[in-house]
Amino acid sequence: MLQLQVLRENPEEIIKHLAIKHFDGGEIIPNIIALDDRRKETQKQLDDNLSQANILAKEIGVLFQTGKSAEANKLKERTTDLKNTSKELSINLESTKKELDELLVRVPNLPHSSVPPGNSAEDNMIVLEEGKIPVLPDNALAHWDLAGKYNIIDFNLGVKISGAGFPVYKGQGARLQRALINFFLDKAIEAGYAEVQPPLMVNSASGYGTGQLPDKDGQMYYMPLDDLYMIPTAEVPVTNIYRDVILKEADLPLKNVAYSSCFRREAGSYGKDVRGLNRLHQFDKVEIVQITRPEKSYQTLEEMREYVSGLLRNLELPFRILKLCGADLSFTSALTYDMEVYSSAQKRWLEVSSISNFETFQSNRMKLRYKDDSGKIHLAHTLNGSALALPRIVAALLENNQTEKGIKIPEALVPYTGFTAIHN
RNA sequence: GGAGAGAUGGCAGAGCGGUCGAUUGCGGCGGUCUUGAAAACCGUUGAGGUGCAAGCCUCCGGGGGUUCGAAUCCCUCUCUCUCCGCCA
Q: Which pTM does this prediction carry?
């Protein structure tokens, strides 16, 4: 949620800026400002009213205590009007605030000045391409076929138990999952991230805090009986640890890493995008989250990008980094790098990580603040990124590393898998 | 799931319906003292809205009510704790 104060300062500039995200703020922004004016006005009237009532109440108190109940009772009559007006004004104020809030949450985050314009994912800017793309023989198999050949991932069994998008990992496939999770966690801890294990279900306040609600309501699994949402990413519970928290400046940057299963309804997906491991309802991910001082956040974003690049180098996967253009940038993000690995049998790039700076968009909603050395309170910046999401990494590993004798495990992973190849 | 107790500032813990945004202790910060530190002593120390400012207003788990006036009384919800039941 954008800060009202920022919005008021230069609405024209904001509207122009939001256009990069293809968001038309021409109407909503002036409406928000008008509503805020109304809010201030009503608040002022209410405050004055309450102030008068408070003064009267005190006078009445003194009169009663000094035994002048006749005068007190006379004064009482004067409070009736004030009470009625206050009641009216506070109802008015509440509805104005609600209206204001409803508009405010519909405005996306401002894109960073370096965000390239664009009309679709085609316009994302490739900032780096690294690693050798393997040339596979013509009979190379896609990962869903390899999964069957080596009996390591059973998609049909998942369908039987749950439905499409819930694969069952078996044998060396399950071991590989465990290896990747531990490898990613160990690396993150090495890089100074503190590990947390968060709940996999969250309440709606947390959903609002990180911006999944109300924007992506239909994308989360929801359990009405208990009013809980299955997390689509560990970003939600981990960032919400710091909801309504005032940190000390010395605590920053705050770095957390969490492994979690992630659950996504993926309503509206179809076709080759969802084949095999490409898009699942349940998958595993290691997520890194940082909370920083505003002036440090872009430096941190670059560090996180470099960190994730290091993981991909360790896994010996060819990858590229995209800077998302305005059209592809998410609602909450100011700047996002997507990391993609090349899956050589599918012959396509697969997104395995998305690293974003949300600036104060999340922290403003969450009231995540820090106190500086002089005692002043500021909103912190929040950032997060996958480091990494498993399924597409597995897809690329299987496809890129397939040989006659089985699937070769990258060296860095061998201590974790306990085997050097997947074979029958 | 059943019965009971409770929810107050970073923590602990007071608070007859009227000067309580809240006693006190600890912690934090500043100072005196000290070569430095500790101890002791003094001072200071919640958040938000609005305003140039002084100030005014709101917040004692959430919501509602009684009252001229609520941290204090009533209703309700949520959560925590204790006991019982069930149980990885």
A: 0.91
